[in-house]
Amino acid sequence: MPEESRAVIIIFGGSGDLASRKLYPALFNLYRRGVLAEHFAVIGTARRPWTDDHYHEVVENAVAGDDVDRDQAKAFAQHFFYQSHDVTDADHYITLKNLAAKLDDQYVTGGNRIFYMAMAPDFFETIASHLKSEHLLTERGFNRLIIEKPFGHDYASAKELNDSLTATFDDDQIFRIDHYLGKEMIQNLLAFRFDNAIFEGVWNKDYIDNIQITLSEAVGVE
Fold first, then answer.
1. What structural domains and CATH numbers belong to the chain?
2. How big is the CA angle at 45 (ends 145 and 141), to the nearest 5 degrees?
3. DSSP output for 7-54
4. For residue 25, is the peptide bond before it cis, meaning its omega torsion is within 30 degrees of 0?
5. DSSP at 79
6. Which of 142, 161, 203, 208 gets the most CB atoms within 10 Å of its CB?
């Protein structure tokens, strides 16, 4: 049995497609494996005026499948709480802080906090700034910031975003996620390069400006 993880997980963009399609099933897999058990809570935030009961239905539907025990899915969803949230409104962060503190005590999470940015990157800097100014960062446990791509649109914008985030979080607290880097085609680039000696002299920055790969998928980003 793996060691149980303890944390309050705050998902910005909790009503979105990324959360329902990827994050909730991934968290449920951890729950079924025992990595998440009793000592965790998830706060989903977004602008939609959802209730906790509706949020539970969303989570249960997101993890539903032929091999899923409905009672287990329902028990999992009871760890989820929803807060309607405007990321530009400082008062909303105070409400969020109070809810996180309440759930930390209720689920005995050790003060550990994970902040997951599952929304437009335009808001990353704003959210990080408010997390610091409204004192949502824990002093008792660990803080983690998880960011989904895109991380800027060029070097300058990526550096600017990184500088703003490291004003709030230490670099080792920031986790940048790009699941496309794990695609087989991307992974095979290195093998293709180093298994073919013919490219040794020309496959470098002097001859290649950039590599562009188009991944045509039926699933969009709606």
1. 7-185 (3.40.50.720)
2. 40
3. EEEEEETTTSHHIIIIIHHHHHHHHHHTSSSSSEEEEEEESS---HHH
4. no
5. T
6. 161
Q: Which helix (H) or strand (E) holds 95?
A: helix 90-107
User: Which residue, among 127, 24, 132, has the nearest Cα to 73 in the 3D structure?
Assistant: 24
Give the separation between CA 31 and CA 189, rounded to whole angstroms: 34
Distance of alpha carbon 94 from alpha carbon 163, whole angstroms:
25
| pLDDT by 10s per residue, the chain, length 222 | 467 899 999 999 999 999 999 999 999 999 999 999 999 999 999 999 999 999 999 999 999 998 999 999 999 999 999 999 999 999 999 999 999 999 999 999 999 999 999 988 889 999 999 999 999 999 999 999 999 877 888 889 889 999 999 999 999 999 998 777 777 878 888 888 888 888 888 888 899 898 887 767 776 555
- Coil/strand/helix, residue 138: coil
Shortest CA distance to 80 belongs to which of 108, 115, 40? 40
